[in-house]
């Protein structure tokens, strides 16, 4: 950080010290959003959450990762609406229960965060989601039931 090798190195290292990243919730819900406030780190953090943490074998990690996505969404709502959400919807087709579960959690948190985010033109962030994607999200429960991937809900 002191040598200038990483953008905002001192700020990031100060925020992400051992004491602050030790508690899992703090690392995901406080430190990660702070680090993501630097544009160089926003997309990589979101991509890491989507590609790795939402698929984690530990349910608690998937849940806190989805909440972290919610906290990062207002920083780049266009990216979440046009890149992240389509990836998550595609992941609901996986045969792996952990991947499907994480994707569904991520979709819910991302859509909620987009509905709360205000764009520079005054619209809400969820207006960035195209109609085809909305249709796929609305049809998820029926699709999962038809493939017998949603159990315990009377399907």
From TrEMBL:
List the Gene3D superfamilies.
Leucine-rich Repeat Variant
InterPro entries tied to this protein: ARM-like, ARM-type_fold, TBCD
Instruction: Give the UniProt entry's GO cellular component terms.
Output: lateral plasma membrane
Highest taxon of the lineage = Eukaryota
GO terms for molecular function, please? beta-tubulin binding; GTPase activator activity
GO terms under biological process: adherens junction assembly; bicellular tight junction assembly; microtubule cytoskeleton organization; post-chaperonin tubulin folding pathway; tubulin complex assembly
Protein name (record): Tubulin-specific chaperone D
Which organism does this sequence originate in? Pararge aegeria
